[in-house]
Amino acid sequence: MTTGRQSIDVTIRGAGIFGLSIAWACARRGARVRVVDPHGIGAGASGGIVGALSPHTPENWNPKKAFQLESLLMAPDWWADVASVGGADPGYGRTGRLQPIAHDKALALAHDRGRQAADLWQGKAVWQVVAADGLSAWAPPSASGWLIHDTLSARIHPRQALAALARAIAARGGEIAAEGAEEGKVVWATGHHDLTYLGVDGAAQKGQAALFALSAPDRPQLFVDGMHIIPHADGTVAVGSTSERDWTDASATDALLEALIGKACAVLPALAEAAVIERWAGLRPRSATRAPIMGLHPGRPGAFIANGGFKIGFGMAPLIAEVMADLVLEGRDRIPEDFRA
């Protein structure tokens, strides 16, 4: 007697941004997928609140920067397809970014980077220097009177994006479960847990972030002295994040976050009038090179790995998903050498 149950083509361990994105890319190509995570969707770093999708500086060009650029450029159509199939909004918006320029030396460097971006970004986005005078109160203070404005940076709502991916996967017949057998090809995307299993030094780095009740859905994100201020479309503004190699409690917020909140309110006074509605802390997976790790799993024979998103996981996810689907489903390997496990 037959049950009519379809076999699973790809099993993915981990329901974070890499795991769900790869599952979606495989499901979209007709594979039957199962995502297994005992902790649920977005239980780790991917369930945070910041969602900054920003490019590396357009200089000292290398395969990592080229890969990130391709992923950021494909993101609008990729996320629109997720939303269309699953019927849920991932909170994506290419709203750009402003950064203050501190002094004349930095101003000269910003102009030089703008020229390089004109060559490297294929005319699909710009990196330009603009005067701070005359801009809205949203603009950050700048000691030089100038700001960098790039139109490649985008924002995404991490939790909405994961929920949208889950809906799209289900619409294509995929499964997301707390447990399940490893059938078909197996991909491990379990974040810092798997990196620790592999013995990677510093595999987890703690980050803390805050969410304000402030509606500025069409404003650009701000990047000031290592801090991201990200307006989301749902009437919130996220601020993050700390980068901590040492911690006692991975999920607890503390004085470091309160200092970050104070810094954000000084940069953008409108935040000082808004309520902090959530404080978040969690561990982010960090590879030894800070680049994503993709390909054959070095510690689990026959399996694949996609890990090490660290601070750029959501920005890299669309292209990582498609490249991993190429490898897993078709045996086609186009992984940059610097990303190999």
TrEMBL record:
Per its UniProt record, what InterPro entries does this chain match? FAD-dep_OxRdtase (IPR006076), FAD/NAD-bd_sf (IPR036188)
Q: Name one Pfam family in it.
A: DAO
Enzyme class, spelled out: oxidoreductase
Residues folding into a coiled coil are none
- Please, which domain of life does this record's source organism belong to? Bacteria
Molecular function (GO) terms for this protein are: glycine oxidase activity
Q: Name one GO cellular component term.
A: cytoplasm
FAD dependent oxidoreductase domain: which residues?
9-327
Q: What is its EC number?
A: 1.4.3.19
Which keywords label this protein? Answer: Oxidoreductase
Keyword Transit peptide carried by entry = no
Q: Does the keyword Signal apply?
A: no
Stated name of the protein? Glycine oxidase
Q: Which organism is it from?
A: Flavimaricola marinus
Report the gene name: thiO
